[in-house]
Amino acid sequence: MQFTLLHTSTSSKARAGVIETDHGNIETPIFMPVGTQATVKTQSPRDLKELQAQIILANTYHLYLRPGSDIIAGFGGIHKFMNWAGPVLTDSGGFQVYSLRELRKIDEAGVRFQSHIDGSYHTFTPQNVLETQQKIGSDIMMVLDECPAHSDPYAYVKKSNQLTLKWARIQRELYQKSAGLHGYDQWLFAIMQGGVFNDLREKSARELVKLDFPGYAIGGLAVGESKKEMYQVTDFSTDFLPQEKLRYLMGVGTPQDLLECIDRGVDMFDCVMPTRNARNGTIFTWDGKIIIKAAIHKTDEKAIAEDCSCYTCKEFPRGYIRHLLNTNEILGMWLTTHHNLHFYLQLMREARRQILTNNFSEWKKSVILKMNNESEI
Length: 377
What we know:
The model has no long low-confidence stretch (mean pLDDT 95). With 377 residues, this protein is α/β, with parallel strands linked by helices. Helix 7 packs parallel to helix 8. The chain is 42% helix and 19% strand. The protein has two domains: 2-271, Alpha-Beta Barrel (TIM Barrel); 278-372, no CATH class.
């Protein structure tokens, strides 16, 4: 497995590269559809292949609880379990534990938390989170981290950051001594934390880079901070990450966010926004968002986007899709999700093309201007 940086824009920090894994190559910048429970909601692996998805994200916390990592290991790993031939990244579950703020207790050894399903108690430690992901068999594994809340004071974020660094050192050492279970290589990525405090972000980056991980995630953003803060922290953080290593911004975001953060040197993204919003009737296009449940679309015979080549746009009018969603028909959720993922992945492919032709910054400005001038409500 390796990452090759092919080109950096001459007018920004935007990058294009290739990740080689045992389950296929990934062209960056890339967006990863979120398949929390070893499935991208409403989309089959065949659908994802048709959409040209190159890698998907699954979640360690949820798969640990159901069906359990031993069951997935028994199938030969997550690829065989879900019949997905391409690469998979697993989050460590740190963000999910963060969201269970009232149901967890953190100490130096790890995190004790209650299941959101049945209230049972469980513990995540650096060791068992790594072991769980090795059993799941993801191509890229994330270290266990603590994600502080945006409202947490500096002193708490500093202490939290020290704990995340300690866990990263433990997991890096354990990883180097371990071997994969399923006959292919697995990478372990670090997660930078530090809230919106530049000095903590710099310390996190410098300490993690010393450990020589193959990739570095920027965590702890899109948790309540302003867009301006998110962009500033991302821009600042990538300055301290190696040029030859992957950079992954976790949990972000809108199409505009992706383009802005590509401009700031990020290679990989994931977010539930295109799939979750699709199921609730928000559709993304090159002209901005469309709220398809709005009454204005009741008799609309136009496609969602007339210049879109996805199955949804080629075959179905807005009025029909609105009807499906307003009657809670599963087909409606499939159609809107399929379009949104098609759009996000097409956006990444076009961004990569613009980077390779040294036209990314100007193209980004024009695209965002058009998206922000939304023609539909």
